[in-house]
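Cytochrome c oxidase assembly protein CtaG
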Amino acid sequence: MLCLAYASVPLYSIFCKATGYGGTTRKATNTTINATDQKIRIYFNADVMSGLPWNFKSETNYIDTNIGQKSLVFYYAENLSEQPVLGMAVYNVTPFKAGKYFNKVACFCFEEQILQPKQKAAMPLSFYIDPEIMRDNSTKDLSEITLSYTFFKLK
């Protein structure tokens, strides 16, 4: 029973990443997408869990982008401590139904991040919104999406 409980977290994570369930985004496999004329506003949120001595913020609160157009934004992190600190970002998209259309081409969230004492780092995010979002009856009228990151301390 303990093994089943331990395995359920990674299995659930895999399920969410594959389906976009719970606002989980996808890692882009196709980066050649035709942009549309339809605009969508993407809001960016940044949080840090207690125990992680970092400042973490996005360069902007939002951008307006064309659906299908690749966009690049930066988040910034700073280690406020006197020790190296290892962190990992988890993320989700709201509304949840938009998660499967939010495709990340490159993201700091794909890997653990280590910041040395007092180090500041720019963390790029490249993404696009899949044009299929306009053909899905549950998402075709969306005008805004929020991407939220929370950094957790590892080790």
